[in-house]
Amino acid sequence: MKLKGAEILLQCLQKEGVDTVFGYPGGAVLPIYDALYKSEIRHILSRHEQGAAHAADGYARATGRVGVCIATSGPGATNLVTGIATAYMDSIPLVCFTGQVGTSLIGRDAFQEADITGITLPITKHNYLVEKTEDLARIVKEAFYIARTNRPGPVVVDLPKDVMEKEIDFEYPEEAINIRGYRVVKGYNSNQVITAVDYIQKARRPVIYAGGGVISSNAAEELRELAEKRKIPVTTTLMGMGGFLGNSYLSLGMLGMHGTRYANYAIGECDLLIAVGVRFDDRVTGKIDTFAPHARVIHIDIDAAEIGKNVEVEVPIVGQVKEVLAAINQRLEAIESEELNEWHETIHRWKEEYPLRYGDSSEGRIMPQHVIEEVYSLTQGEAIICTEVGQNQMWAAQYYHYKHPRSFLSSGGLGTMGYGFPAAIGAKIACPELPVVDIAGDGSIQMNIQELGTAVQYRLPIIICILNNHFLGMVRQWQGLFYGGRYSYTDMSHQPDFVKIAEAYGAIGRRIKEASQVREALEEALKVKDRPVVLDFWVEREADVYPMVPPGGSLMNMLGGD
Ligand SMILES: Cc1ncc(C[n+]2csc(CCOP(=O)(O)OP(=O)(O)O)c2C)c(N)n1
Questions:
Q1: Which residues are designated catalytic?
Q2: What's this model's pTM, rounded to 2 decimal places?
Q3: Helical ranges in 407-512 per DSSP H
Q4: What's the gap in Å between 471 CA and the centre of ligand 1?
Q5: 494 has a pLDDT exceeding 80
Q6: Which of the four, 75, 148, 444, 469, has the lowest number of CB atoms within 10 Å?
Q7: Per CATH, is 368-538 categorized as 3.30.70.250?
Q8: Which has the closest alpha carbon to 366: 480, 511, 527, 497?
Q9: Residue 485 confidence class, pLDDT cut points 50, 70, 90
C-alpha cells in the first residue's frame, strides 16, 4: 500500500495503542495535521506547546501509558523543552514529535529551524531525526519501546516536512525490536535478594523509603505486602505519594525537606533502610553524610546508575521493582507479633508529639492547609490531585492522604511552575470518571493559565484551587528565613482578577475570602460536570510550610512543627 510519511506515522501510533495526542499545529507539521483530520486518533489542541507536553505527561502519569505530543518546528519545538525536561527528571514515558524543516534546508538557518535533537539531547532518554520515510516506522516503534521500558523517560522524534510528505510502499514492520546497546533489564541477582531477606529479618528498626519507581513499576501491591508482612514503617518521596496507603498505621508520610518530623526521625534512627525505586535526591537526604547514619542500606532500582550514586549501599539490587519485591516477599517470614514493638512505640510517640499542624485561622482567614484538608475530606482520596510548584505543592503533599498510585501528579525533579494545570487536563482526559483537582499558587497558575481555553473547549470539569497568598510564597518563605525578611520581588499583589479570567474563558470563577465558605465552595465545584471551575481562595498571606529542613541541613534538625 502506498502511504505518505504522515499517514505511516499515524498508523504506527495506532499500533502502539495511542488513542489521544496533545499538540499544536504549524507549517512543518501540516502533513501530520492533514492526516489527523481523518484519523481515529483524538487530538487535543492545547494553547501553548508547553501545555501540550505537560498534558501528555499528566496523561502518562495518570495511566502508566506513554504520553504523546506534537509540535511544529522551531518555536513550537522549543516551547516543548520545559515539558520534556520535566518528564525526564521524573522518569515519565513520553514520545514527542516535532516538525522539522525539509531535509534539504536543515543546517541552513531556514525559517523556523531549530536543532531540537541537539537542544534536547541532555533532557531525553533518546532522540531521533528521521532522515528517510523508509526509516519512520522502525524509529517510531523504537521510540515507544525506549520511552516505556527500563527506567521510563521522554523520547523526541524530529520529523522533516518532506519525510512526512513522501509516499512509499508501506507494510508495518512486525519484527521484534533490536537496538544496539539497549537491553531491557530482566531478572535480578538472587544472592542479593537472599541477603536482603536476611537483613530484613534481622532488622530491629527498619524503614522503607519508597519513590516514584514503585509507581512506574506498578509495585504498590508488593510494597504493601512487604510492609505488612514485616510491619515496616514506610515513608515516601514526593514522587512516591500514592505508592503506599497514606493513612495506613505504617505510613510515615513524606520525608525530606518538608517531610514529617516522624519520617525524618525514623530515617535518623533506623538500622535498616530499604530504598525502593528512589534516587536519594538532595531534597530528601539533606546533608548526605548525616542521612540514615546508623542504617545498612538495601537499594532496589531498575537503573544501575542510581545505585551508589549518592549513598553507600550494602545490598544493591538492579531489577524491576515489582519483580524484586515479589521475590523478597516470597522468601520473607511474617514477623512475630512482638518483634518490633519498641520501634513502633518510638514512632508512635514521635507521631503523637510532632503531628503535622498549622496555626488556627483567626477572624475567619483561610489557612491554605485547611483548603487541602477539605479537598481530602470531600474526595476521600478518590481524586487525582495535581499541583503547581511551591508551598501549594508541599501542602498538597502533607495534608491530603493519597490512597492510590497515580493519584498525585506533581513536578518533583524539575519543580516546574505551571505544570499542574495542563497535567490536570491530561489526567482528566485519561480518567474522566475521577474528580481532578489542581492545587495552585497565584504565581504558578499564571504560567499556563491560557490552558483554560483547552479545558473549556473539551468541557473538562477540572477544579483549580488557587491558594492565593499574593506572594511567590515559597520564595518569600526562604527570604523570610534565610535572607532577613527582605522580600525582594516576591510580592504578587498586582494580580489579574482570576474570577473574571475564568469567566472570560467560559469557565466558572469564584473568590473565597472566608474560612467558613471553603467547604461549600468545593462542594459546589465538585458538582460541575461540563467545565473547569477556578476557586480563588484568598489565604493567610504569610503562612509557611513546616516542618522544614534548611537546605543542606541534617534531617534531625528541622525547623517548626515541634
Ligand atoms: C518555572 C519556574 N520558575 C521559577 C521557579 C522558582 N520558584 C519555586 S516556588 C516559587 C514560588 C511559587 O509561587 P506560587 O505559585 O504563588 O506558589 P506558593 O509558593 O505561593 O504556593 C518560585 C518562583 C520554579 N520552580 N519554576
A1: 49, 111-112, 161, 474
A2: 0.97
A3: 420-430, 442-445, 452-457, 473-482, 498-505
A4: 9
A5: yes
A6: 75
A7: no
A8: 511
A9: very high
